Amino acid sequence: MQSQGTLTFDSKGGTDVSSQAVNKGEIFTKPTDPTFTNHTFDRWFIDKALSTPYDFQTAATKNITLYAKSKKLPEEIKTGKINIKYQVENGKETHNSNSVTGNVGDIFNLKEKYLFEIPNYKYVKTVDTSEGKFSEETQEVIYVYKY
């Protein structure tokens, strides 16, 4: 009777992969890649340190355990929105509204670009802040003018 080699798989948190047994000298079959949550499968390695990739064209000579390496999927980039309004002290709009978007967590400074002179009006104050960081919730900045 010919001796066998067994190939087992440690998916390191991925879905289970069935072990294989073949006669020594034969080649193991590359299995279906394991699946991961928030990761994608990269390749199989013969060492726990994941430094030596396994070649599925290598003839079986002994029992082997392979270790899966996965890569973290990129996180979805979330965007935030800021509505910019221009109005007089009584709340009536003096100019068309504007909006700006950016990645959540990015810093914004709206005064330099969005605070401007409106003919026959004088800038009085800013309601809320025109500087800060974008957030997931829609933010609002109001520039108040006096006629």
Question: Could you explain how this protein is built, in words?
Answer:
There is one protein chain. With 147 residues, this protein is mainly beta. The protein has two domains: 69 residues, Listeria-Bacteroides repeat domain (Immunoglobulin-like), CATH 2.60.40.4270; 68 residues, Roll (Ubiquitin-like (UB roll)), CATH 3.10.20.320. The strands form three sheets. A four-stranded mixed β-sheet has the order 2-1-4-3, with no helix packed on it. It has a four-stranded mixed β-sheet with strand order 6-5-10-8, with no helix packed on it. The termini are far apart.
List the helices and strands and how they pair.
Blueprint lengths: L3 E7 L9 E4 L15 E7 L18 E9 L6 E10 L4 E11 L3 E3 L1 H4 L7 E6 L3 E3 L5 E8 L1
Parallel strand pairs: 1-4, 5-10
Antiparallel strand pairs: 1-2, 3-4, 5-6, 7-9, 8-10
Stretches where pLDDT is under 50 for at least 5 consecutive residues are: none
Count of spatially separate domains = 2
Shape descriptor:
rod-shaped
- Secondary-structure element order, N to C: EEEEEEEHEEE
Task: Tally the beta strands.
Answer: 10
- The structure class reads mainly beta
Describe the sheet with the most strands: 4 strands, mixed
Mean pLDDT: 91
Helix fraction bin: under 10%
Strand line-up in the sheet with most strands: 2-1-4-3
Which value, in Å, is the CA radius of gyration? 31 Å
CATH architecture of the largest domain: Sandwich
Question: How far is it from the N-terminal to the C-terminal residue, by CA?
Answer: 100 Å
